[in-house]
Amino acid sequence: MAEYIAPSPQTVGLNNAVVFNASIPCTRNNIYHEDGSGIFILRGITNNCDARYEVTFNGNIEVPTGTAVPISIGMTENGEIKQESIATYSPLDIETLGNVTSTTTVTVPRGCCFTVAVRYVSTEVTPAPTINVSNGSVRIVRTA
User: How far is Cα 83 from Cα 116, in angstroms, rounded to an integer?
Assistant: First the structure.
């Protein structure tokens, strides 16, 4: 298991990744992450056909200014949003934090590498507001 945190509040624009630092880094070379980055590289190091990872994000998000609109966080795999991972928060007012949790499974074929990121992915208002993310964490567990 590896865990990465976003301890300081950060402003995130639409389609941008949340930035993390290592809390409990991976020591088996299965997960590569550079502190201050939002991209994780999962490696298919295995004697079996695939390496399977469970990736979970938990954090607080808010709309800091403007109008309170539904906001969503989701996981990407190789740059593509995983629809089942989208977590939406509908604040009643601006500057109101709400907790969201998103979990997805990533299966990496033997000898391959996939990228994973947590992104601000959708909005119902144009132009999209920026959001604040605080006390965020990503936990990555190799399950197979």
Answer: 14
Phi, psi angles (nearest 5°) of residue 28: -105, 5
How many whole angstroms separate alpha carbon 59 and alpha carbon 31?
21
Q: What is the pLDDT of residue 7?
A: 78
Q: Predicted confidence band at 127 (pLDDT cuts at 50, 70, 90)? A: confident
Nearest to 37 by CA among 116, 134, 129, 120: 116
What is the distance between the alpha carbons of residues 20 and 115, in angstroms, rounded to a whole number?
A: 14
Q: Is the peptide bond before 127 cis (omega within 30 degrees of 0)?
A: yes
**Residue 120: CB atoms within 10 Å:** 23
